[in-house]
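Narrative summary of target 7.
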Amino acid sequence: MTEDPLIQARKRAERAVEGMNEGSLKIAAFQAILTKLLGESDHAEEGQRTSVKPPSSTTKHPDSLTGRILTIKSEGFFKTQRSLGEVREALGSRGWHYPLTTLSGVMQGLVQQRRLRRERASTGKRRIWKYSNP
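Modeled conformation, tokenized:
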């Protein structure tokens, strides 16, 4: 005879917080753990896989930097050649702030995957990379 999933989740949550001092923090931790456990049991009962994410290019709000760059690409941002600074500004205007050092490696990876193209361009005396659609 199997035990009710609700009772199993409650007992697991109680065991998880049993070493904590009584108070609001313990209550909040118990609630958070119980909510998570109940959410997992709902997905298991429905037969859904909980660890599989949709591809980042199809999500509305991508979680990875690569997905975010591909999002602005799908909006037509790379129709004209763009510098790394322009890419950083476009991401920043959407609330996604990254240093140039982080952007450069991801952009290079997208070029290697042939999702973007880059060319050396001169702006004054400086030579920089410009990125565009392949």
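The first strand starts at residue 82 and ends at 83.
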